[in-house]
Design a protein that fits this description.
Strand content: 15-25%
CATH superfamily: P-loop containing nucleotide triphosphate hydrolases
Strand order of the largest sheet: 1-3-4-2-5-6-7
Structural class: alpha/beta
Radius of gyration: 16 Å
CATH class: Alpha Beta
Distance between the termini: 10 Å
């Protein structure tokens, strides 16, 4: 399957279940805490800096956003979690929307993002643990690698691995991502293609 990521467009912004797409296109979801770099990754994959909204302020993505990639699949930007300045009511709304999305849609894979500079949050750990038990294929991508020296990267990967729940440590094989330097993008595209083709 040859996918042209430059042939990407915003398909749907969903604030509730009824707005989720009703067609059979496969879905690849991108999950992670607020400001982890979900929108920047989508823009880098599609070579379009204006496709997904980015900003220095966390909490920009408050709906489930579907991008149609070459009419082959949806790349789905999930609401970021763990943003401290968001009100409790809004947090519950985001969480409920994400839960509804995950429980009602057929998801081919979840790309779980963690900022390589920091240890995983409790929300990160719980999400990865849930994915491991859900049966949904997933991979972990460590973002913002350009913010570290090469000598620091392996050390951080090992630190993150040790913070995972014990049952997850053995299979920890993350993709190292830099949206700025385009690092890891081809590896991620290959993983998506493998999942979509079932090979």
């Amino acid at each position: 399957m040859k996918i042209n990521y430059q042939n990407a467009k915003l398909a749907q912004v969903a604030g509730f279940k009824e707005q989720f797409p009703q067609d059979d296109l496969p879905q690849i979801a991108i999950s992670g805490k607020s400001n982890v770099g979900k929108s920047s990754l989508i823009n880098a994959l599609c070579q379009n800096s204006k496709l997904a909204r980015t900003g220095k302020s966390p909490g920009k993505t408050r709906q489930v956003i579907f991008f149609n990639i070459d009419d082959k699949f949806y790349l789905v930007d999930l609401p970021g979690y763990g943003y401290a300045k968001t009100s409790q009511k809004e947090i519950e709304k985001f969480s409920e929307l994400t839960d509804t999305y995950i429980s009602t849609q057929t998801i081919h894979m979840v790309v779980q993002l963690i900022d390589i500079r920091h240890k995983p949050t409790l929300n990160d750990l719980n999400m990865i643990n849930w994915l491991a038990h859900s049966g949904i294929p997933y991979l972990i991508a460590l973002t913002k690698a350009d913010k570290l020296k090469k000598s620091q990267i392996n050390k951080q990967v090992e630190l993150i691995r040790k913070k995972l729940y014990e049952n997850l440590q053995e299979n920890f094989n993350p993709i190292i991502i830099s949206s700025v330097k385009k690092q890891g993008l081809d590896q991620l595209k290959s993983a998506i293609e493998t999942v979509l083709t079932g090979e």
